[in-house]
């Protein structure tokens, strides 16, 4: 029987994250984490953490981390907003900027948190179909709307939208906020950051989770005009003024200060990705060019769900989405060379067995 108070409960369909199994021996290629450890400076900073610091609230303005990111990006500190992972930053952006009666627009195949936030914050939205090759069709974003958001490269497809396309979309959307979610941009795509000089309605969001191997620390940031960053800070201070903890602030600074290590791991992951692409092609898989740390692949004689389950039996985790148009694809995060060799050899075995 329905309880009287139940009618006052906000019921939402939650975001379903990839599995986080906790096995001693597993190959985890399902949530786009980085297989390499964070920069050595992060381990050093962790060792040197003074527990007495934990007695005090952290700096709500996150000044040291904001300054370090601004310096590295060649922007002013007033142009940076940090949060607890880019999920937190994006949710703040939804709350702050998407308050129109008109629907916000995003692709039909994209990061599955967007519709969750829209529902949660009661923001009307309309998804726009990708074309047959999983490209965004820019004309779909020229209609009247309450804001635009998409990842670049897109997730889970890995497909990059060109700078020209992004600029065309910005040209047609000067009266609303346009957010480019660049969670995967460091793996060989072009950032929209230079467009910030020209468009004061643009927000570029990036994260430490993927390219900086810091998913466990939850650090993300937005880059935008000082005016937009101020609006974000006002909302943050009214909702969750102390969300970034002291440890995240300290370790984030240590990570951003080691650019050489960052570039070295990116290079390794991109090299591995290109090698895996070649082998998957030989094995009969098809995929679009990926500019991210994952490959979104399908095989015409190999049902994705079955392969997903077979790999899982071997403790190899990839991501399967039971969704229209992409139910025959697997998203495979790029791990170390050894992990990818094991993955490829299991795929090969499966293909041989299934004839
Ligand atoms: N955007 C996209 C497209 C993602 O795939 C993810 C990772 N799940 C995020 C944002 C959020 O990443 P994080 O909160 O770890 O920064």
Describe the SSE topology.
Layout: E1 27-28, H1 40-47, H2 63-73, E2 80-83, H3 85-97, E3 104-107, H4 113-120, E4 125-128, E5 147-151, H5 163-171, E6 178-181, E7 202-207, E8 220-223, H6 226-239, H7 246-256, H8 259-282, E9 285-287, E10 294-299, H9 304-313, E11 316-317, E12 319-320, E13 329-333, H10 337-353
Parallel strand pairs: 1-11, 3-4, 3-5, 5-6, 6-7
Antiparallel strand pairs: 2-8, 7-8, 9-10, 10-13, 12-13
Modified residues (N6-(pyridoxal phosphate)lysine): 210
Subunit structure: Homodimer.
GO biological process, one term: L-histidine biosynthetic process
CA gyration radius, whole angstroms:
21 Å
Q: What's the architecture of the largest domain in CATH terms?
A: 3-Layer(aba) Sandwich
Shape: globular
The number of helical runs is: 10
Secondary-structure-based class equals alpha/beta
Distinct bound molecules: 4'-deoxy-4'-aminopyridoxal-5'-phosphate
Write the CATH fold name of the largest domain: Aspartate Aminotransferase, domain 2
Low-pLDDT residue intervals, each spanning 5 or more residues: none
Q: Count every beta strand, where a strand is a DSSP E run of 2 or more residues.
A: 13
């Amino acid at each position: 029987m329905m309880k009287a108070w139940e009618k006052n409960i906000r019921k939402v369909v939650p975001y379903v994250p990839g599995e986080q199994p906790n096995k001693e021996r597993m190959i985890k290629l399902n949530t786009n984490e980085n297989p390499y450890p964070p920069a050595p400076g992060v381990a050093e900073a962790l060792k040197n953490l003074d527990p007495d610091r934990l007695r005090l609230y952290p700096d709500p303005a996150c000044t040291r981390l904001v300054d370090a990111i601004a310096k590295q990006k060649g922007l002013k500190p007033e142009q940076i907003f940090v949060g607890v992972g880019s999920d937190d930053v994006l949710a703040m952006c939804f709350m702050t900027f998407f308050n129109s009666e008109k629907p916000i627009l995003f692709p039909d195949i994209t990061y599955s948190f967007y519709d969750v936030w829209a529902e949660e914050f009661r923001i009307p939205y309309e998804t726009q179909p990708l074309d047959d090759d999983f490209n965004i069709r820019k004309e779909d974003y020229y209609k009247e709307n309450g804001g635009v958001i998409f990842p670049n490269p897109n997730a889970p497809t890995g497909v990059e939208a060109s700078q020209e396309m992004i600029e065309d979309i910005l040209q047609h959307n000067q009266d609303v906020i346009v957010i480019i979610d660049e969670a995967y941009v460091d793996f060989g795509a072009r950032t929209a950051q230079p467009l910030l000089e020209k468009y004061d309605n643009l927000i570029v969001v990036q994260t430490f989770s993927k390219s900086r191997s810091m998913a466990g620390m939850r650090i993300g940031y937005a880059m935008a005009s000082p005016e937009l960053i101020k609006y974000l800070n006002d909302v943050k201070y009214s909702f969750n003024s102390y969300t970034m903890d002291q440890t995240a602030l300290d370790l984030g600074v240590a990570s951003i200060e080691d650019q050489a290590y960052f570039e070295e791991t990116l290079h390794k992951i991109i090299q591995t990705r290109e090698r895996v692409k070649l082998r998957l092609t030989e094995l009969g898989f098809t995929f679009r060019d990926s500019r991210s740390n994952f490959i979104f692949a399908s095989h015409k004689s190999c049902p994705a769900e079955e392969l997903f389950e077979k790999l899982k039996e071997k403790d190899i985790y990839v991501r399967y989405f039971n969704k229209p148009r992409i139910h025959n694809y697997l998203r495979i995060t790029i791990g170390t060379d050894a992990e990818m060799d094991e993955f490829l050899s299991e795929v090969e075995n499966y293909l041989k067995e299934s004839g």
